[in-house]
Amino acid sequence: MIGTLVNVGAVIAGSTLGLLIHSRLPQKITTITFQGIGLFTVFLGITMAMETDNPLIMIFSIVLGGILGETIDIANYLERFGDALKVRVKSKNERFTEGLLSAFLLFCMGAMTILGAIEEGLGDPPNLLLAKSVLDGFAAIALSTTFGIGIMFSVVPLLIYQGGLTLFAGLLQNVLSDVVVGEISAVGGLILLGLGLNILEIKEIRLLNMLPALLVAAILAFFFLQ
How many domains does the chain have? Predict the structure, then answer.
């Protein structure tokens, strides 16, 4: 769990620095930073999504996953979790929950999360997660200048998700082959693309309810591409 704990520490440190910088920045600088984050997220999402060699897997995953997520209404539960955490820490930032959940999506959709967690869980040095920690730390600086302290508390779902993958790495290594991870990452790229559109306020997409698409992608890739 060392890699995940370092990742958590990097996000906390980056968020803290971002909050300190934010208090000294004029609004126009915060706005352009926000827009820059949105554009980069769109680019990252497109880059990841283009790595798929099986667009049908992607289409079925995002559609079936979205239907499943809407049926369960995952967004409602996660938003309630964010709001409850906001009350508990007595934050008055109106974008606390939005920032927390946006940061979680950005920090956890890439292949580095899955591969890094498995690498460490199998007893290897957590090189991927350490590299990811550096990237996430810088991202946390930029995000917290816009979303505020909610970015810091994104470490809670990050720790649960990434730490869980690490703990169950032994069970997952035979399931999550390179092909399966590639398809999960590609679908994650679509979700990041949607996150970028949300950040840029182009279109509001219910991304949290699309999270089951990652599981659907894993199942379809496992049965049809191996």
Answer: 1
